[in-house]
Amino acid sequence: MLSAVYDAPLTTAPLLLSLVLAASGVAKLVDRETVGEAFVSLRLPGVLTRLKAPTLLPFAELMLALALLVTSGALAVVVALVALAVFVAYLVVIVRALGFDEPVTCSCFGKLGLGTVDRFTAVRNAVLVALALVTLYDATRGRSVVARCADFDGEAWAWLLAVLVGIVLTWLIAGHRGGQEASAPSDAGDDYVRQPIPYAVLRTREDAGVTLREMAYSSPVLLLLVSPHCGSCLPVIERARTWQHKHENLRTVIVLSGDPDEPTGLQDEGDFDVMFDPSFEIGRLFAGGNPTAVLLGADGMLAGGAVSGKGNVLGLLDEISEELSAVEQPAADDDAAAENAPGASVTQTSLETPPARATPAPVVQSSPAPAVDDAADLPVTDTEVAETQDVVEDDEYVTRPTPYALFTDGTGTKVSLMDIGRAGPTVLLYVSTGCGSCKEVLNSVATWQASLRGVPIFCIVGHETEVEGLAPYGIEPNRALIDEPRAVATMMRLGTPSLFAIGPDEHLLAGPVSGQVDITATMEAIIGEVRAVRSEDAGDDQADNKPV
Fold first, then answer.
1. Which numeric CATH code is attached to 201-350?
2. What topology is assigned to 375-533 in CATH?
3. How far apart are CA 223 and CA 406, in angstroms?
4. What does the angle CA 224 – CA 261 – CA 276 come to, to the nearest 5 degrees?
5. Would the CATH topology of 201-350 be identical to that of 375-533?
6. Residue 254 CB contacts under 8 Å (≥ 6 apart), including other chains
7. Domain range annotation of the chain
8. pLDDT 10s digits, 148-190
9. Long-range contacts (CB closer than 8 Å, 24 or more residues apart) made by 20-23
């Protein structure tokens, strides 16, 4: 039986391909709608949809998975060639999608594999092609996989089992990439926490710039970030076509990622109020992909969302519709009618706490902030912070969602606060290179960074000219963030220096605190927490994030 042990490595390739095809086919059968949406998102020829390819594909994958195991001889070679052609075609489709102007969501494994197409996806498919090549060679040996497995002894089965355990363990450690829509972060509580409308600019059809705050100056606005080439967006677009006429007191705006002078790709685009996000700033700001929905209140605050994914977006539309229907009921008298006027109560009362994903609000510290160098220069308005200043007593830290903010880093790359936090726990310092107390804080950055055991420190400055001034303190350009419009400073009421920390659960982990003394004390507390959960003896790099 010694030959069985040497036969096991080659047998692994068709076994793995069969397992992949079976998992893909079952997942597609469980969520058939997602498969059709993927054909649209990947911009596959329409003739495939007309030939019922999305419906037939999961059955074909299941049949191919079985055939890889039971066929032998010349038929096994034919089956292996079909498998190779299938996986090469999948690779070509993915590589082609990487060249699209906008991110593409692929359901390669049904909802189990729902995620954005990236280089990781291409590498994964390339590995599958390599396995298909090994499978083709293995098929030339004559006997079927099932027949050879029947001759395996305990050592050969142990070898195969070890390989399968390694695959499962890798999947569990790395975490699967599925369930994008279902992975929307949960609230710390059931209440919808509001925050000021973030700073971002959309373009009109005439290529004029309009900020989000200007759009919602006199009435609430619902933004729907979609793409006509996104399969999950099509139901949202069609719902918006009728939904916006049902609630005419709420402006509904379709946001596309292209330039204003390019074709929109929308059918009957005159049915929609369309604006453009050519540099993907809005998409990066909310870090949700297409489709995403967010409701801007007329009081300068977010009133709903942001939520992402077809189900979450349609759910938010239903919740808003219910709220608006209640507000638009005929009033019993003139006074009641005045109180229920659209554009006021909708954003301030009815839609203040919809059962959607919580959006961030500025976090205030448990005690008044000490005087800071640049506090007087920050353009803070009462309407931006009045509804979100919660006084925390007895030094109890109340976690808050991460604010929506978009930066340009020192390399010129756009990055959102949400994306930074999703990469792992992160400490952020809001500083000015011309501020005396900021320099004292910056002098400690290298020491703090060495003690944080992998938790990065980012520095936020108000202008790109200050990025070079951070270099002497060991701050690399990709960790220098430029808050040119002072958006995050305004929303969080930050002076310089200030500190706050964010985490992958999209909530603040610490701060904000201001002043050198409080920053130093908070950093010492954070370092203590990191040492407690990331001790070298424990060897645990997946520590829980505890609020400081």
1. 3.40.30.10
2. Glutaredoxin (3.40.30)
3. 17
4. 20
5. yes
6. 224, 226, 237, 240, 266, 272, 273, 274, 275
7. 2-181, 201-350, 375-533
8. 777 666 666 776 677 676 666 566 555 544 444 433 443 434 5
9. 20/65, 20/128, 21/61, 21/62, 21/64, 21/65, 21/68, 21/83, 22/61, 22/62, 22/65, 23/109, 23/112
